[in-house]
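User: Can you fold this complex?
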Amino acid sequence: AQSVAQPEDQVNVAEGNPLTVKCTYSVSGNPYLFWYVQYPNRGLQFLLKYITGDNLVKGSYGFEAEFNKSQTSFHLKKPSALVSDSALYFCAVRPLNYGQNFVFGPGTRLSVLP
Amino acid sequence: NAGVTQTPKFQVLKTGQSMTLQCAQDMNHNSMYWYRQDPGMGLRLIYYSASEGTTDKGEVPNGYNVSRLNKREFSLRLESAAPSQTSVYFCASTPTGLPSYNEQFFGPGTRLTVL
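Assistant: Here's the predicted assembly.
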């Protein structure tokens, strides 16, 4: 079965510190990988994606993600967290042989403390 | 561009009532999706439409029906609402069908409560 895990329900970091939100996946083949962010009472917004090539992908708002094929992981990172980064973050994969479907992780709530 | 719009924003139903959630996109996207979001479960796909005129079941289709009215509009209908359908519903779209690395664009959501 295709699945995405985000092992931490909640991540707390101090403003100015680096942050990491973890994602691992179990799908067949080489999927496309995505990160989305959801602010309160809003829809999901796209942050970044990995298609192929360089394992470090840069996205919106200073976020980046590192793809690790051997560990089937796609962790989201930011060198210096802002209070405004506090939100719910979702990892998603789109297996190439799984029809139209994206598979989403359960989400990780990030709280950046001033 | 308005992007993906959804109506209504909030709705309260009694068990057994029916309603239709509306979704429209103005980005000329081919594929559209309906998800439900429940705490700790992420987004689960209810139905999707790869292109105008086609619809397919997702992970949790029971209790729902959909209509792809035209390229812009994709509606979700609850024929007989149940408390288990209390959730936040999101519509999304992408530019093309298979194979695609395009990201999804999401609407603002509809918060539905079934009493």
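The mean pLDDT of chain A is 92. DSSP finds no helices and twelve strands in chain A.
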